[in-house]
Protein backbone atom coordinates (compact mmCIF):
# COMPACT_ATOMS: atom_id res chain seq x y z
CA UNK A 1 0.00 0.00 0.00
CA UNK A 2 2.82 2.40 0.79
CA UNK A 3 6.45 2.37 -0.14
CA UNK A 4 9.47 1.95 2.02
CA UNK A 5 11.02 4.58 4.22
CA UNK A 6 14.64 5.57 3.90
CA UNK A 7 16.38 7.82 6.37
CA UNK A 8 19.84 9.40 6.56
CA UNK A 9 20.54 11.86 9.36
CA UNK A 10 23.46 13.84 10.73
CA UNK A 11 22.66 15.89 13.77
CA UNK A 12 24.41 17.38 16.77
CA UNK A 13 22.88 18.69 19.99
CA UNK A 14 25.43 19.80 22.54
CA UNK A 15 27.75 16.86 23.08
CA UNK A 16 25.43 14.40 21.43
CA UNK A 17 26.09 13.42 17.84
CA UNK A 18 23.66 11.38 15.81
CA UNK A 19 24.74 9.84 12.56
CA UNK A 20 22.60 7.07 11.16
CA UNK A 21 21.03 5.90 7.96
CA UNK A 22 18.69 3.00 7.42
CA UNK A 23 15.71 1.96 5.40
CA UNK A 24 12.54 0.38 6.66
CA UNK A 25 10.54 -2.01 4.48
CA UNK A 26 6.90 -2.85 5.18
CA UNK A 27 6.02 -4.32 8.57
CA UNK A 28 7.45 -3.28 11.91
CA UNK A 29 10.93 -1.78 12.02
CA UNK A 30 12.23 -1.53 15.56
CA UNK A 31 14.73 1.15 16.51
CA UNK A 32 16.47 -0.49 19.40
CA UNK A 33 18.99 0.91 21.84
CA UNK A 34 19.53 2.15 25.36
CA UNK A 35 18.20 5.54 26.41
CA UNK A 36 20.40 8.25 24.98
CA UNK A 37 21.25 6.22 21.90
CA UNK A 38 19.38 8.64 19.64
CA UNK A 39 16.21 6.65 18.93
CA UNK A 40 13.78 9.43 19.77
CA UNK A 41 15.86 12.03 17.92
CA UNK A 42 15.66 9.81 14.87
CA UNK A 43 11.88 9.38 14.95
CA UNK A 44 11.46 13.10 15.59
CA UNK A 45 13.40 13.73 12.40
CA UNK A 46 11.17 11.31 10.52
CA UNK A 47 8.05 12.92 11.95
CA UNK A 48 9.29 16.43 11.20
CA UNK A 49 9.38 17.56 14.83
CA UNK A 50 13.12 18.09 14.59
CA UNK A 51 15.11 19.64 11.77
CA UNK A 52 18.50 17.96 11.65
CA UNK A 53 21.71 19.64 10.60
CA UNK A 54 21.73 17.57 7.48
CA UNK A 55 19.72 14.64 6.30
CA UNK A 56 17.25 13.05 3.93
CA UNK A 57 13.96 11.35 4.64
CA UNK A 58 12.08 9.69 1.81
CA UNK A 59 8.78 7.88 2.27
CA UNK A 60 7.61 6.00 -0.80
CA UNK A 61 8.01 8.50 -3.61
CA UNK A 62 7.71 11.58 -1.39
CA UNK A 63 10.80 13.41 -0.21
CA UNK A 64 9.95 14.77 3.24
CA UNK A 65 13.34 16.18 4.10
CA UNK A 66 16.40 16.97 2.05
CA UNK A 67 18.64 19.56 3.61
CA UNK A 68 20.81 19.74 0.49
CA UNK A 69 17.91 20.69 -1.72
CA UNK A 70 16.29 22.75 1.01
CA UNK A 71 13.20 20.54 1.30
CA UNK A 72 11.38 20.39 4.63
CA UNK A 73 7.80 19.21 4.69
CA UNK A 74 6.16 20.40 7.94
CA UNK A 75 4.74 17.71 10.23
CA UNK A 76 1.11 18.44 9.44
CA UNK A 77 1.66 17.70 5.76
CA UNK A 78 3.77 14.55 6.22
CA UNK A 79 0.85 12.24 6.95
CA UNK A 80 2.94 10.34 9.47
CA UNK A 81 1.09 9.12 12.55
CA UNK A 82 2.99 9.53 15.79
CA UNK A 83 2.18 7.64 18.98
CA UNK A 84 4.09 9.27 21.81
CA UNK A 85 5.31 7.69 25.01
CA UNK A 86 2.82 9.79 27.00
CA UNK A 87 -0.33 9.39 24.88
CA UNK A 88 -0.78 13.19 24.55
CA UNK A 89 -4.56 13.02 24.27
CA UNK A 90 -6.37 16.35 24.15
CA UNK A 91 -7.73 16.84 27.68
CA UNK A 92 -10.56 19.13 26.55
CA UNK A 93 -12.00 16.54 24.18
CA UNK A 94 -13.74 13.23 24.82
CA UNK A 95 -12.30 9.99 23.50
CA UNK A 96 -14.74 10.14 20.58
CA UNK A 97 -13.67 13.69 19.78
CA UNK A 98 -9.98 12.81 20.11
CA UNK A 99 -10.51 10.09 17.51
CA UNK A 100 -12.51 12.46 15.32
CA UNK A 101 -9.64 14.95 15.50
CA UNK A 102 -7.42 12.45 13.71
CA UNK A 103 -10.02 11.88 11.01
CA UNK A 104 -10.96 15.55 10.53
CA UNK A 105 -7.63 16.55 8.99
CA UNK A 106 -7.17 13.38 6.92
CA UNK A 107 -7.81 13.61 3.18
CA UNK A 108 -11.43 12.65 2.58
CA UNK A 109 -11.20 10.86 -0.72
CA UNK A 110 -8.54 8.43 0.39
CA UNK A 111 -9.21 4.96 1.77
CA UNK A 112 -7.81 4.15 5.16
CA UNK A 113 -9.50 2.29 7.96
CA UNK A 114 -13.07 3.24 8.85
CA UNK A 115 -13.65 4.67 12.32
CA UNK A 116 -15.70 1.59 13.27
CA UNK A 117 -12.86 -0.70 12.17
CA UNK A 118 -10.32 1.18 14.27
CA UNK A 119 -12.66 1.21 17.26
CA UNK A 120 -13.10 -2.56 16.91
CA UNK A 121 -9.40 -3.23 16.29
CA UNK A 122 -8.35 -1.41 19.44
CA UNK A 123 -11.36 -2.28 21.61
CA UNK A 124 -12.30 1.37 22.09
CA UNK A 125 -16.09 1.08 22.06
CA UNK A 126 -16.54 1.23 25.87
CA UNK A 127 -14.29 4.29 26.10
CA UNK A 128 -15.86 6.55 23.47
CA UNK A 129 -17.92 8.72 25.80
CA UNK A 130 -15.19 9.17 28.38
CA UNK A 131 -12.60 11.88 28.86
CA UNK A 132 -8.85 11.27 28.75
CA UNK A 133 -8.46 12.36 32.39
CA UNK A 134 -10.38 9.28 33.56
CA UNK A 135 -8.58 6.66 31.49
CA UNK A 136 -5.88 4.25 32.61
CA UNK A 137 -2.43 4.44 31.03
CA UNK A 138 -3.13 1.46 28.79
CA UNK A 139 -6.49 2.82 27.65
CA UNK A 140 -4.93 6.17 26.84
CA UNK A 141 -2.29 4.54 24.67
CA UNK A 142 -4.96 2.58 22.79
CA UNK A 143 -6.88 5.79 22.12
CA UNK A 144 -3.66 7.51 21.01
CA UNK A 145 -2.96 4.67 18.58
CA UNK A 146 -6.51 4.89 17.24
CA UNK A 147 -6.30 8.64 16.83
CA UNK A 148 -3.05 8.32 14.87
CA UNK A 149 -4.51 5.55 12.68
CA UNK A 150 -7.61 7.57 11.81
CA UNK A 151 -5.44 10.32 10.33
CA UNK A 152 -4.80 7.80 7.52
CA UNK A 153 -1.04 7.82 8.00
CA UNK A 154 1.39 6.55 5.39
CA UNK A 155 3.68 5.53 8.23
CA UNK A 156 3.17 5.08 11.95
CA UNK A 157 5.85 6.12 14.45
CA UNK A 158 5.61 4.64 17.92
CA UNK A 159 8.05 6.04 20.45
CA UNK A 160 8.20 3.56 23.34
CA UNK A 161 4.42 3.49 23.60
CA UNK A 162 4.60 0.94 26.41
CA UNK A 163 7.49 2.39 28.41
CA UNK A 164 5.35 4.15 30.99
CA UNK A 165 3.07 1.15 31.57
CA UNK A 166 3.38 -1.72 34.03
CA UNK A 167 3.69 -5.34 32.88
CA UNK A 168 -0.05 -6.02 33.01
CA UNK A 169 -0.88 -3.00 30.86
CA UNK A 170 1.91 -3.85 28.44
CA UNK A 171 0.48 -7.31 28.03
CA UNK A 172 -2.88 -5.68 27.38
CA UNK A 173 -1.59 -3.46 24.55
CA UNK A 174 0.89 -5.75 22.80
CA UNK A 175 -1.74 -7.92 21.11
CA UNK A 176 -3.36 -4.78 19.69
CA UNK A 177 -0.07 -3.65 18.19
CA UNK A 178 0.40 -7.13 16.74
CA UNK A 179 -3.03 -6.95 15.13
CA UNK A 180 -2.14 -3.54 13.79
CA UNK A 181 1.01 -4.97 12.23
CA UNK A 182 -0.82 -7.89 10.72
CA UNK A 183 -4.08 -6.22 9.68
CA UNK A 184 -3.66 -2.50 9.08
CA UNK A 185 -0.96 -2.75 6.42
CA UNK A 186 0.77 0.46 7.51
CA UNK A 187 4.54 0.37 7.99
CA UNK A 188 5.47 0.99 11.60
CA UNK A 189 8.67 2.37 13.09
CA UNK A 190 8.72 1.21 16.68
CA UNK A 191 11.18 2.64 19.20
CA UNK A 192 12.06 0.40 22.12
CA UNK A 193 14.75 -0.57 24.55
CA UNK A 194 13.02 -3.80 25.51
CA UNK A 195 14.22 -7.05 23.93
CA UNK A 196 10.96 -8.94 24.59
CA UNK A 197 8.94 -6.23 22.82
CA UNK A 198 11.28 -6.18 19.87
CA UNK A 199 11.37 -9.97 19.66
CA UNK A 200 7.61 -10.07 19.64
CA UNK A 201 6.87 -7.25 17.22
CA UNK A 202 9.76 -6.46 14.92
CA UNK A 203 10.30 -7.67 11.37
CA UNK A 204 13.32 -5.45 10.88
CA UNK A 205 15.72 -4.38 13.57
CA UNK A 206 17.89 -1.26 13.65
CA UNK A 207 20.29 -1.13 16.59
CA UNK A 208 21.63 2.20 17.77
CA UNK A 209 24.28 2.97 20.32
CA UNK A 210 25.58 6.39 21.31
CA UNK A 211 24.07 8.06 18.26
CA UNK A 212 25.55 5.57 15.79
CA UNK A 213 23.98 2.73 13.91
CA UNK A 214 25.47 -0.54 15.17
CA UNK A 215 23.62 -2.99 13.01
CA UNK A 216 20.49 -3.30 10.92
CA UNK A 217 18.75 -6.23 9.33
CA UNK A 218 16.03 -8.83 9.59
CA UNK A 219 14.91 -9.10 13.20
CA UNK A 220 15.02 -12.89 13.52
CA UNK A 221 18.57 -12.99 12.19
CA UNK A 222 19.74 -10.01 14.24
CA UNK A 223 18.38 -11.43 17.48
CA UNK A 224 20.52 -14.53 16.95
CA UNK A 225 23.73 -12.55 16.50
CA UNK A 226 26.37 -12.32 19.18
CA UNK A 227 28.14 -9.16 18.04
CA UNK A 228 25.25 -6.73 18.46
CA UNK A 229 26.32 -5.33 21.79
CA UNK A 230 23.17 -3.83 23.36
CA UNK A 231 21.22 -6.95 22.42
CA UNK A 232 23.82 -9.41 23.57
CA UNK A 233 24.21 -7.88 26.99
CA UNK A 234 20.53 -8.12 27.72
CA UNK A 235 19.14 -10.78 30.04
CA UNK A 236 16.38 -11.27 27.50
CA UNK A 237 18.67 -11.98 24.54
CA UNK A 238 17.78 -14.92 22.41
CA UNK A 239 16.90 -16.05 18.90
CA UNK A 240 13.43 -15.67 17.44
CA UNK A 241 11.97 -18.52 15.40
CA UNK A 242 8.97 -18.38 13.12
CA UNK A 243 6.74 -21.36 13.76
CA UNK A 244 3.54 -23.08 12.68
CA UNK A 245 1.32 -25.09 14.97
CA UNK A 246 1.21 -28.71 13.81
CA UNK A 247 -0.51 -30.47 16.66
CA UNK A 248 -1.99 -30.37 20.13
CA UNK A 249 -1.73 -32.96 22.88
CA UNK A 250 -4.81 -32.26 24.95
CA UNK A 251 -4.00 -34.91 27.55
CA UNK A 252 -0.69 -33.37 28.54
CA UNK A 253 -1.61 -29.80 27.61
CA UNK A 254 1.12 -29.51 25.01
CA UNK A 255 1.38 -27.96 21.56
CA UNK A 256 3.89 -28.95 18.91
CA UNK A 257 5.24 -26.19 16.70
CA UNK A 258 7.26 -26.76 13.54
CA UNK A 259 10.17 -24.34 13.29
CA UNK A 260 13.18 -24.15 10.96
CA UNK A 261 15.24 -25.41 13.91
CA UNK A 262 13.07 -28.49 14.31
CA UNK A 263 9.85 -29.28 16.17
CA UNK A 264 9.39 -27.62 19.55
CA UNK A 265 7.03 -28.69 22.31
CA UNK A 266 5.37 -25.81 24.11
CA UNK A 267 2.77 -25.51 26.82
CA UNK A 268 -0.64 -25.47 25.17
CA UNK A 269 -1.18 -22.56 22.77
CA UNK A 270 -4.80 -21.50 22.30
CA UNK A 271 -4.58 -21.34 18.52
CA UNK A 272 -5.77 -23.77 15.85
CA UNK A 273 -3.47 -26.06 13.89
CA UNK A 274 -1.83 -24.22 11.02
CA UNK A 275 -1.67 -20.90 12.86
CA UNK A 276 1.66 -19.11 12.74
CA UNK A 277 3.43 -18.00 15.89
CA UNK A 278 6.70 -16.35 16.80
CA UNK A 279 8.80 -18.00 19.43
CA UNK A 280 11.67 -16.40 21.25
CA UNK A 281 14.13 -18.87 22.70
CA UNK A 282 16.05 -17.06 25.42
CA UNK A 283 19.76 -17.74 25.32
CA UNK A 284 19.83 -18.46 29.03
CA UNK A 285 17.16 -21.17 28.63
CA UNK A 286 19.30 -23.20 26.19
CA UNK A 287 21.58 -25.96 27.50
CA UNK A 288 24.23 -27.72 25.42
CA UNK A 289 25.21 -31.37 25.39
CA UNK A 290 27.89 -33.12 23.33
CA UNK A 291 25.90 -36.39 23.22
CA UNK A 292 22.18 -36.92 22.75
CA UNK A 293 21.01 -36.70 26.33
CA UNK A 294 19.11 -39.64 27.82
CA UNK A 295 17.06 -39.84 30.95
CA UNK A 296 16.45 -36.11 30.76
CA UNK A 297 13.18 -34.39 31.60
CA UNK A 298 13.46 -31.67 28.92
CA UNK A 299 11.26 -32.37 25.88
CA UNK A 300 13.06 -30.25 23.31
CA UNK A 301 16.37 -31.64 22.09
CA UNK A 302 17.61 -30.17 18.81
CA UNK A 303 20.61 -31.18 16.74
CA UNK A 304 22.89 -28.23 16.11
CA UNK A 305 26.36 -27.11 15.19
CA UNK A 306 28.45 -24.44 16.88
CA UNK A 307 28.55 -21.51 14.47
CA UNK A 308 30.21 -18.85 16.57
CA UNK A 309 31.65 -18.45 20.03
CA UNK A 310 31.60 -15.04 21.61
CA UNK A 311 35.13 -13.87 22.41
CA UNK A 312 35.80 -13.28 26.10
CA UNK A 313 35.02 -9.74 27.10
CA UNK A 314 37.13 -7.57 29.34
CA UNK A 315 34.68 -7.95 32.21
CA UNK A 316 35.48 -11.62 32.72
CA UNK A 317 31.90 -12.48 33.70
CA UNK A 318 30.78 -16.06 34.16
CA UNK A 319 28.69 -16.38 31.02
CA UNK A 320 29.40 -16.53 27.33
CA UNK A 321 27.14 -16.81 24.30
CA UNK A 322 27.38 -19.57 21.71
CA UNK A 323 25.59 -19.19 18.38
CA UNK A 324 24.29 -22.42 16.93
CA UNK A 325 23.21 -23.34 13.45
CA UNK A 326 20.17 -25.48 13.95
CA UNK A 327 18.56 -26.73 10.75
CA UNK A 328 17.66 -23.59 8.85
CA UNK A 329 17.76 -21.29 11.84
CA UNK A 330 20.08 -19.77 14.39
CA UNK A 331 19.84 -20.34 18.14
CA UNK A 332 21.87 -18.74 20.89
CA UNK A 333 22.91 -20.57 24.05
CA UNK A 334 24.22 -18.71 27.09
CA UNK A 335 26.46 -21.00 29.11
CA UNK A 336 29.30 -20.46 31.54
CA UNK A 337 32.82 -20.02 30.25
CA UNK A 338 33.73 -22.88 32.52
CA UNK A 339 31.32 -25.22 30.71
CA UNK A 340 32.55 -24.03 27.34
CA UNK A 341 36.11 -24.95 28.24
CA UNK A 342 35.03 -28.14 30.02
CA UNK A 343 33.23 -29.33 26.87
CA UNK A 344 36.08 -28.04 24.73
CA UNK A 345 33.61 -26.40 22.33
CA UNK A 346 34.99 -25.33 18.95
CA UNK A 347 33.28 -23.79 15.94
CA UNK A 348 31.89 -26.59 13.79
CA UNK A 349 31.30 -29.05 16.66
CA UNK A 350 28.08 -31.04 16.61
CA UNK A 351 26.04 -30.48 19.77
CA UNK A 352 22.52 -30.96 21.09
CA UNK A 353 20.61 -27.93 22.24
CA UNK A 354 18.21 -28.60 25.09
CA UNK A 355 15.26 -26.35 25.99
CA UNK A 356 12.76 -27.13 28.73
CA UNK A 357 9.16 -26.91 27.59
CA UNK A 358 8.07 -25.09 30.71
CA UNK A 359 10.60 -22.36 29.99
CA UNK A 360 8.15 -21.14 27.36
CA UNK A 361 5.24 -19.07 28.41
CA UNK A 362 2.35 -18.16 26.20
CA UNK A 363 1.69 -14.48 25.72
CA UNK A 364 -1.12 -13.43 28.03
CA UNK A 365 -4.55 -13.20 26.46
CA UNK A 366 -5.62 -9.73 25.58
CA UNK A 367 -8.70 -8.27 27.19
CA UNK A 368 -9.83 -6.90 23.88
CA UNK A 369 -12.54 -8.34 21.67
CA UNK A 370 -10.19 -10.37 19.51
CA UNK A 371 -10.80 -13.72 17.93
CA UNK A 372 -7.98 -15.73 16.44
CA UNK A 373 -5.48 -13.32 17.83
CA UNK A 374 -2.05 -13.66 16.24
CA UNK A 375 -0.36 -14.29 19.53
CA UNK A 376 3.36 -14.24 19.82
CA UNK A 377 4.98 -16.59 22.24
CA UNK A 378 7.72 -15.73 24.57
CA UNK A 379 9.48 -17.59 27.31
CA UNK A 380 8.99 -16.58 30.90
CA UNK A 381 11.46 -13.92 31.82
CA UNK A 382 10.08 -13.52 35.27
CA UNK A 383 11.09 -17.05 36.25
CA UNK B 1 -38.04 48.37 41.90
CA UNK B 2 -37.10 50.49 38.94
CA UNK B 3 -37.79 53.73 40.83
CA UNK B 4 -35.18 52.70 43.37
CA UNK B 5 -32.67 54.48 41.14
CA UNK B 6 -33.33 57.82 39.51
CA UNK B 7 -33.39 57.95 35.68
CA UNK B 8 -29.99 59.62 35.43
CA UNK B 9 -28.55 56.99 37.76
CA UNK B 10 -29.97 54.22 35.53
CA UNK B 11 -28.33 55.98 32.61
CA UNK B 12 -24.96 55.97 34.39
CA UNK B 13 -25.30 52.23 35.17
CA UNK B 14 -26.35 51.36 31.62
CA UNK B 15 -23.52 53.43 30.22
CA UNK B 16 -20.99 51.82 32.54
CA UNK B 17 -22.07 48.33 31.49
CA UNK B 18 -22.00 49.34 27.81
CA UNK B 19 -18.58 50.98 28.09
CA UNK B 20 -17.05 48.04 29.99
CA UNK B 21 -18.56 45.42 27.66
CA UNK B 22 -17.41 47.20 24.51
CA UNK B 23 -13.97 47.81 26.03
CA UNK B 24 -13.58 44.10 26.90
CA UNK B 25 -14.95 42.62 23.68
CA UNK B 26 -13.03 45.03 21.46
CA UNK B 27 -9.72 44.44 23.19
CA UNK B 28 -10.10 40.64 23.33
CA UNK B 29 -8.85 39.83 19.79
CA UNK B 30 -5.91 42.21 20.10
CA UNK B 31 -5.23 40.95 23.62
CA UNK B 32 -5.09 37.34 22.37
CA UNK B 33 -2.71 38.32 19.60
CA UNK B 34 -0.42 40.34 21.87
CA UNK B 35 -0.41 37.63 24.55
CA UNK B 36 0.47 35.05 21.88
CA UNK B 37 3.32 37.23 20.64
CA UNK B 38 4.64 37.79 24.14
CA UNK B 39 4.34 34.15 25.19
CA UNK B 40 5.56 32.46 22.01
CA UNK B 41 7.16 35.07 19.80
CA UNK B 42 10.85 35.73 19.46
CA UNK B 43 11.38 39.08 17.83
CA UNK B 44 13.28 42.30 18.15
CA UNK B 45 11.53 44.77 20.44
CA UNK B 46 9.64 42.16 22.44
CA UNK B 47 10.51 43.74 25.78
CA UNK B 48 9.54 47.15 24.40
CA UNK B 49 6.10 45.77 23.49
CA UNK B 50 5.87 44.17 26.92
CA UNK B 51 6.64 47.52 28.58
CA UNK B 52 4.20 49.42 26.38
CA UNK B 53 1.37 47.00 27.22
CA UNK B 54 2.05 47.26 30.93
CA UNK B 55 2.51 51.04 30.97
CA UNK B 56 -1.12 51.92 31.83
CA UNK B 57 -0.78 49.73 34.92
CA UNK B 58 2.00 51.87 36.41
CA UNK B 59 1.31 55.32 34.97
CA UNK B 60 -1.02 57.59 36.92
CA UNK B 61 -4.42 57.12 35.18
CA UNK B 62 -4.68 60.86 34.66
CA UNK B 63 -1.47 60.73 32.63
CA UNK B 64 -2.86 57.89 30.52
CA UNK B 65 -6.05 59.92 29.99
CA UNK B 66 -4.10 62.99 29.01
CA UNK B 67 -1.98 60.99 26.56
CA UNK B 68 -5.20 59.60 25.06
CA UNK B 69 -6.50 63.14 24.75
CA UNK B 70 -3.32 64.20 22.97
CA UNK B 71 -3.39 61.24 20.64
CA UNK B 72 -7.10 60.63 20.06
CA UNK B 73 -8.50 64.15 20.59
CA UNK B 74 -9.98 66.03 17.62
CA UNK B 75 -6.64 67.71 17.04
CA UNK B 76 -4.49 64.70 17.94
CA UNK B 77 -2.79 62.78 15.12
CA UNK B 78 -4.86 59.61 15.50
CA UNK B 79 -8.07 61.40 16.44
CA UNK B 80 -7.83 63.70 13.42
CA UNK B 81 -7.14 60.74 11.11
CA UNK B 82 -10.13 58.79 12.48
CA UNK B 83 -12.39 61.85 12.14
CA UNK B 84 -11.29 62.79 8.63
CA UNK B 85 -11.38 59.30 7.14
CA UNK B 86 -14.01 57.44 9.10
CA UNK B 87 -15.97 60.18 10.83
CA UNK B 88 -15.20 58.59 14.19
CA UNK B 89 -14.96 60.92 17.15
CA UNK B 90 -13.73 59.55 20.44
CA UNK B 91 -13.12 62.55 22.67
CA UNK B 92 -16.04 63.45 24.93
CA UNK B 93 -18.06 60.51 23.60
CA UNK B 94 -18.95 57.21 25.25
CA UNK B 95 -16.75 55.46 22.67
CA UNK B 96 -13.83 57.40 24.11
CA UNK B 97 -14.77 56.16 27.57
CA UNK B 98 -14.69 52.63 26.17
CA UNK B 99 -11.24 53.30 24.69
CA UNK B 100 -9.98 54.59 28.03
CA UNK B 101 -11.38 51.52 29.81
CA UNK B 102 -9.88 49.19 27.22
CA UNK B 103 -6.44 50.77 27.51
CA UNK B 104 -6.53 50.54 31.29
CA UNK B 105 -7.83 46.95 31.32
CA UNK B 106 -5.56 45.72 28.52
CA UNK B 107 -2.51 44.85 30.69
CA UNK B 108 -4.68 42.71 32.98
CA UNK B 109 -6.25 40.93 30.01
CA UNK B 110 -2.92 40.24 28.31
CA UNK B 111 -1.28 39.12 31.52
CA UNK B 112 -3.90 36.50 32.32
CA UNK B 113 -3.97 35.11 28.78
CA UNK B 114 -0.20 35.08 28.55
CA UNK B 115 0.17 33.14 31.81
CA UNK B 116 -2.26 30.46 30.68
CA UNK B 117 -0.59 30.30 27.27
CA UNK B 118 2.74 29.66 28.92
CA UNK B 119 1.16 26.85 30.92
CA UNK B 120 -0.11 25.06 27.79
CA UNK B 121 1.76 21.81 27.13
CA UNK B 122 3.50 22.35 23.80
CA UNK B 123 3.56 18.58 23.34
CA UNK B 124 -0.19 18.57 22.77
CA UNK B 125 0.18 21.13 19.99
CA UNK B 126 2.98 19.04 18.53
CA UNK B 127 0.71 16.00 18.59
CA UNK B 128 -2.03 17.97 16.84
CA UNK B 129 0.50 18.86 14.14
CA UNK B 130 1.33 15.21 13.49
CA UNK B 131 -2.40 14.59 13.05
CA UNK B 132 -2.48 17.01 10.13
CA UNK B 133 -3.54 20.29 11.74
CA UNK B 134 -1.66 23.37 10.57
CA UNK B 135 -0.71 26.14 12.98
CA UNK B 136 -3.92 28.11 12.62
CA UNK B 137 -6.06 25.03 13.27
CA UNK B 138 -3.88 24.02 16.22
CA UNK B 139 -4.34 27.47 17.73
CA UNK B 140 -8.10 27.34 17.18
CA UNK B 141 -8.96 23.80 18.28
CA UNK B 142 -6.21 22.94 20.76
CA UNK B 143 -4.58 26.06 22.20
CA UNK B 144 -7.66 28.25 22.51
CA UNK B 145 -9.79 25.70 24.39
CA UNK B 146 -6.88 24.96 26.72
CA UNK B 147 -6.39 28.64 27.63
CA UNK B 148 -10.11 29.35 27.97
CA UNK B 149 -10.00 29.65 31.79
CA UNK B 150 -7.26 32.28 31.44
CA UNK B 151 -9.19 34.14 28.75
CA UNK B 152 -12.28 34.23 30.96
CA UNK B 153 -10.33 35.41 33.99
CA UNK B 154 -8.56 38.08 31.96
CA UNK B 155 -11.80 39.30 30.40
CA UNK B 156 -13.50 39.67 33.77
CA UNK B 157 -10.52 41.58 35.14
CA UNK B 158 -10.56 43.83 32.10
CA UNK B 159 -14.33 44.34 32.43
CA UNK B 160 -14.01 45.22 36.12
CA UNK B 161 -11.16 47.61 35.45
CA UNK B 162 -13.13 49.33 32.67
CA UNK B 163 -16.22 49.58 34.93
CA UNK B 164 -14.22 51.27 37.64
CA UNK B 165 -11.99 53.45 35.50
CA UNK B 166 -12.03 57.04 36.71
CA UNK B 167 -8.85 59.06 36.16
CA UNK B 168 -8.23 58.32 32.51
CA UNK B 169 -11.95 58.55 31.68
CA UNK B 170 -12.60 61.89 33.27
CA UNK B 171 -9.42 63.34 31.74
CA UNK B 172 -10.08 62.03 28.23
CA UNK B 173 -13.87 62.29 27.87
CA UNK B 174 -14.89 64.40 30.88
CA UNK B 175 -18.05 63.77 32.90
CA UNK B 176 -21.05 64.44 30.66
CA UNK B 177 -24.32 62.98 31.99
CA UNK B 178 -25.89 60.66 29.41
CA UNK B 179 -22.76 60.51 27.27
CA UNK B 180 -19.65 59.84 29.33
CA UNK B 181 -20.85 59.79 32.90
CA UNK B 182 -20.18 56.29 34.23
CA UNK B 183 -20.76 54.98 37.75
CA UNK B 184 -17.46 56.25 39.24
CA UNK B 185 -17.77 59.71 37.74
CA UNK B 186 -21.43 59.88 38.75
CA UNK B 187 -20.51 58.97 42.33
CA UNK B 188 -17.82 61.62 42.21
CA UNK B 189 -20.39 64.19 41.05
CA UNK B 190 -22.76 63.26 43.89
CA UNK B 191 -20.00 63.79 46.43
CA UNK B 192 -19.40 67.29 45.07
CA UNK B 193 -22.97 68.56 45.60
CA UNK B 194 -24.76 69.20 48.89
CA UNK B 195 -27.22 66.43 49.76
CA UNK B 196 -25.68 64.01 47.28
CA UNK B 197 -24.81 61.38 49.91
CA UNK B 198 -27.87 59.22 49.25
CA UNK B 199 -27.22 59.11 45.52
CA UNK B 200 -23.56 58.30 46.08
CA UNK B 201 -24.55 55.47 48.43
CA UNK B 202 -27.08 54.02 45.96
CA UNK B 203 -24.54 53.98 43.14
CA UNK B 204 -21.89 52.55 45.46
CA UNK B 205 -24.20 49.63 46.30
CA UNK B 206 -24.88 49.13 42.60
CA UNK B 207 -21.13 49.08 41.91
CA UNK B 208 -20.54 46.50 44.62
CA UNK B 209 -23.34 44.33 43.21
CA UNK B 210 -22.04 44.51 39.64
CA UNK B 211 -18.47 43.71 40.72
CA UNK B 212 -19.56 40.74 42.79
CA UNK B 213 -21.75 39.42 39.98
CA UNK B 214 -18.80 39.63 37.60
CA UNK B 215 -16.56 37.82 40.07
CA UNK B 216 -19.08 35.03 40.67
CA UNK B 217 -19.66 34.66 36.93
CA UNK B 218 -15.95 34.36 36.26
CA UNK B 219 -15.56 31.83 39.06
CA UNK B 220 -18.39 29.68 37.67
CA UNK B 221 -17.09 29.85 34.11
CA UNK B 222 -13.53 29.06 35.16
CA UNK B 223 -14.74 26.09 37.20
CA UNK B 224 -16.80 24.75 34.33
CA UNK B 225 -13.80 25.08 32.01
CA UNK B 226 -11.48 23.40 34.51
CA UNK B 227 -13.97 20.55 35.00
CA UNK B 228 -13.96 19.91 31.27
CA UNK B 229 -10.19 19.54 31.32
CA UNK B 230 -10.02 17.35 34.41
CA UNK B 231 -12.71 14.70 34.16
Main attributes of the structure:
heterodimer; A: 383 residues; Rossmann fold; OB fold (Dihydrolipoamide Acetyltransferase, E2P); 2 domains; 6-stranded mixed beta sheet; B: MetI-like fold
Description:
The complex is a heterodimer of chains A (383) and B (231). With 383 residues, chain A is α+β, with helices and mostly antiparallel strands. Chain A has 2 domains: 5-229, P-loop containing nucleotide triphosphate hydrolases (Rossmann fold, 3-Layer(aba) Sandwich), CATH 3.40.50.300; 238-377, Beta Barrel (OB fold (Dihydrolipoamide Acetyltransferase, E2P)). Chain A has helices at residues 39-47, 95-104, 115-121, 137-150, 167-184, 195-201, 219-223, 229-232, 337-343, and strands at 5-13, 16-24, 28-32, 54-59, 62-66, 71-72, 80-83, 155-159, 188-192, 204-209, 212-218, 238-249, 254-259, 262-267, 276-282, 286-289, 300-309, 319-326, 329-336, 350-355, 360-362, 377-379. In chain A, strands 7-8-9-3-10-11 form a 6-stranded mixed beta sheet, with helices on both faces. Chain A has a 5-stranded antiparallel beta sheet with strand order 2-1-4-5-6, with helices on one face. A 5-stranded antiparallel beta sheet of chain A has the order 16-20-17-18-19. Chain A starts with a strand and ends with a strand. The model of chain B has no long low-confidence stretch (mean pLDDT 90). Chain B is globular. The termini of chain B are far apart. Chain B has a single domain (2-230), classed as MetI-like (MetI-like fold). Chain B has 231 residues and is mainly α. Helix content of chain B is 80%, strand content 0%.
Amino acid sequence: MTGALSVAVEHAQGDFHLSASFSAPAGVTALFGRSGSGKTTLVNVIGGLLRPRSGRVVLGNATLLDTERGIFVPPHRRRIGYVFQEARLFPHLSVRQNLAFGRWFAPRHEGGLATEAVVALLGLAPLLGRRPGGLSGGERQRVAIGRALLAKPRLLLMDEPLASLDETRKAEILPFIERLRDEAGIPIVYVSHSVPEVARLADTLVVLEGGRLVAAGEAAEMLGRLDVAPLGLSRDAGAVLPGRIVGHDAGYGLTTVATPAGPLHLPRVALPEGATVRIQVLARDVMLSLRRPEGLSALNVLEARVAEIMPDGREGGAATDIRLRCGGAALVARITRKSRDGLGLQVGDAVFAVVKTVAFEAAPESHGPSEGEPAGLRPAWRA
Amino acid sequence: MLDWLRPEEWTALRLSLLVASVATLASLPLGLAVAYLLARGRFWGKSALDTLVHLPLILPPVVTGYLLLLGFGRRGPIGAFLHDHFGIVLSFRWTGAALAGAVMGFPLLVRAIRLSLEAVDGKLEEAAGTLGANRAWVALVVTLPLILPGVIAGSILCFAKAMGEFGATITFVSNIPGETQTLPTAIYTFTQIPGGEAGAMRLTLVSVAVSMAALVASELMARAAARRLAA
